[in-house]
Amino acid sequence: MKNLLEVSNLHVYFETPAGLVRANNGLDLQLEAGGSLGIMGESGCGKTVLVYTLLGLQQPGKIMNGSILFKGRELVNLPEAELNNIRGRQIALIPQNQSTALNPLLKVGEQISEIETALKIPDTGLDNTKHLLAELGLGDIHSVEHILKSYPHQLSGGMRQRVLTAMALLAEPDLLVADEPTTALDASTRTTALNILKKSSSKTSLLVISHDLPALKILCPKLAVMYAGRVVEYSDTESLMENPRHPYSRMLMKYQQSAGFLNMPLTGFESRDLLGDDKGCSFALFCPQATAICLKEIPQEVCLESGRVVCHLYTRNGVQTC
Ligand SMILES: Nc1ncnc2c1ncn2[C@@H]1O[C@H](COP(=O)(O)OP(=O)(O)OP(=O)(O)O)[C@@H](O)[C@H]1O
Ligand SMILES: [Mg+2]
């Protein structure tokens, strides 16, 4: 199947008083048209930076190198006016924090009208939105009317989640990106959020950033594991969960099984680890299987039966590099 999104060798750096932060550092990923891809990796590994870079909103980060092909079109260095046509219309985002993503001073209906105007969606007197919200399980038209007349603080977390999803789906985007859609939700709101995304996946391709493995298993047939700004393993979700190949993925899956959710640094990795010399494998210092080469040479991608892994373990074993 043709790729909807192809990110290659993406480098996004931030200049900070402490030095250069390599938030995305040679990142590769692909998403098939109509497919759903999950991305997991511990806090600070560059997931949200990737999301905003896809939308052309990475500043003050700078794209130092790499390519983002969306529907075959290069997004890196695309003029702002053209990015504007893609943002929200073709690539839409459900942002990381649903409790702060809505304007507290405007009623939900007013915010939706603003989006319709900004995205030049024909004004249907909110009919499309009402239909979408009802479809997303916010009850009959009467309760939907009530939601549109409410301020965000008058809604529950689950309701706000549905409103944000409806906003993101308004323009019928080709790609819906959900950044940690289940984090900080209680069990029933989480189930609602999952159902919403599952439903949405029949209309749009999904890129789901999450620490929530069971959620990723439900939503995404493909999974990428990120570490220190790179995708270190990519595979069928089930294969990656059952038989992780990268030592970091193994650690991550083991941790998930024992702790359930990854809400704290697993390796003690911090943003300062994205600073400094860019040599060797970023995981080498924490890796139980590291050898001398891991400290010296940046590993290349290696093809395996069900996916790809970026680790010297596999090149040493004579497996062909991709
Ligand atoms: N505006 C910024 N200025 C400087 N550094 C930044 C900026 N935005 C992000 N970073 C750095 O980029 C790195 C990646 O951040 P990012 O928000 O992408 O992490 P994440 O993987 O989404 O983490 P989390 O799981 O906690 O959401 C971090 O080290 C962060 O400090
Ligand atoms: Mg994030």
From TrEMBL:
The ABC transporter domain, residue ranges: 5-253
Domain of life: Bacteria
E.C. no: 7.2.2.11
Record-linked InterPro entries: AAA+_ATPase, ABC_Ni/Peptide_Import, ABC_transporter-like_ATP-bd, Oligopep_ABC_C, P-loop_NTPase
Gene3D superfamilies per record: P-loop containing nucleotide triphosphate hydrolases
Compartments it resides in: Cell membrane
Entry's family note: Belongs to the ABC transporter superfamily.
Native species: Dehalococcoides mccartyi (strain VS)
Record carries keyword rRNA-binding: no
Lineage, opening ranks: Bacteria, Bacillati, Chloroflexota, Dehalococcoidia, Dehalococcoidales
Keywords from the named record: ATP-binding, Cell membrane, Ion transport, Membrane, Nickel, Nickel transport, Nucleotide-binding, Translocase, Transport
UniProt keyword annotation of Transport present: yes
Gene Ontology annotations of biological process type: peptide transport
One cellular-component annotation, GO: plasma membrane
Transmembrane segments: none
Gene name in the database record: dppD
Membrane topology summary: Peripheral membrane protein
GO molecular function: ABC-type nickel transporter activity; ATP binding; ATP hydrolysis activity
Pfam families xref list: ABC_tran, oligo_HPY
Catalysed reactions, semicolon-separated: Ni(2+)(out) + ATP + H2O = Ni(2+)(in) + ADP + phosphate + H(+)
PANTHER family: NICKEL ABC TRANSPORTER, ATP-BINDING PROTEIN (PTHR43297:SF13), OLIGOPEPTIDE TRANSPORT ATP-BINDING PROTEIN APPD (PTHR43297)
Assembly information from the UniProt record: The complex is composed of two ATP-binding proteins (NikD and NikE), two transmembrane proteins (NikB and NikC) and a solute-binding protein (NikA).
Protein name as annotated: Nickel import system ATP-binding protein NikD
